[in-house]
Design goal:
single chain, 6-stranded antiparallel beta sheet, about 35% helix, about 25% strand, globular
């Protein structure tokens, strides 16, 4: 699988001299490709940092789980939860909110994806909405696995 990624600051950020708060990360290994994108909440001073932490954590945790034999759905769910935890344990957690979209694919078929759409939801979410198949399912954020 070939992945192309990039980001540019929009006119709002350029006009105000603000940094771009977007982040993306992806890894491929053993037939799996895991991709994440995040958009920092512009109203928060360290949201770009939050976006970078969220995508890195989500991708790395998801890929580790997949290689370890976890199901696609569970690996993606845990990837989102670990990204959330990576932000909420920080002293500046109230300054690092972001959106997150995470997807995992296998070269022989199969995929799972999750999104956290509100700019502050990654730090404060209660549920994860996933689309591992053509129908939506809502999953609890509780897990026996630690990040």
């Amino acid at each position: 699988m070939t992945v192309y990624a990039g980001t540019i600051a929009g006119p709002y950020h350029v006009d105000r001299g603000q940094e771009n708060q977007d982040a993306h990360w992806f890894l491929s290994e053993k037939g799996f490709t895991v991709i994440a994108v995040a958009d920092g909440a512009g109203s928060l001073p360290r949201s770009g940092t939050g976006a970078e932490i969220a995508v890195s954590t989500a991708v790395n945790e998801t890929l580790d789980d997949l290689i370890g034999g976890e199901s696609m759905d569970e690996a993606v769910r845990c990837g989102v939860l670990c990204a959330r935890k990576s932000l909420t344990v920080r002293d500046d957690s109230d300054e690092t909110g972001c959106t997150l979209a995470l997807a995992a694919f296998h070269e022989n078929g199969g995929w799972a994806a999750a999104t956290v759409g509100d700019a502050l939801s990654l730090s404060h979410m209660r549920t994860v909405i996933m689309t591992p198949s053509p129908h939506l399912s809502q999953l609890s954020t509780s897990t026996s696995r630690s990040c």
